[in-house]
Protein 1
Amino acid sequence: MFHFSVELTVGEQDVNYRNHASVNKYLVFFNKARIAYLAALGYDFDSETINPGLIVAESHCYYKKELGLGAVITVKCRIREINQKSIVMEFF
């Protein structure tokens, strides 16, 4: 179950000459959702001494649907797993 979501609009910077978003832009959408989710949980991205930056060590994206210019999408995310030095997040 996904308890957090963010609504995004596919903009001109997200599409190619045929007005389709490429798969690498999906990772940008996921990153925007990740930042919004962690901020909602209280993560302070501006405090370098309290919260060091987060590194995305690995990511996977399965292309399931074509997105075009102006499409409004809802990106859902959740934390699937918390480890000692890492977290695993999922997006839909």
Protein 2
Amino acid sequence: MWQRIKDNPQHEVLGLLHIGTGIFLVNHDKYFRWPPGNFLLFVNDDWVGFWFMLVGMAFLLWVLLGAKDVRWNRAILVLLTMTMGALATYQLIHWVVLGTDIMPWMSNAAVTAFIILLARGSAANGGDH
């Protein structure tokens, strides 16, 4: 098990990051403040945090189960890119519209870029990190 984790440290870190982000979003029901109305209720709902946790757990399981299925790796990388990209974009919009400094959109954009680079490396290496 430890060897699998050592062989895929980026995947482990991204999985743990997604789980941590999901826990944060579940525990902060008023994190997003724009736009007012039903969409705000939608994005502040716990399902968003659970989605992040689910994607993170899928990546951890991929590593712990042997990290051999290339299609699973690519699918999870796409989901990771979509979730972090959406979060960074939504946080950027908060910063632009509301001027809030508490949204870490730059670091989440950097994580999204890292995921894209990892995906490119996975595609070039036939699925391996």
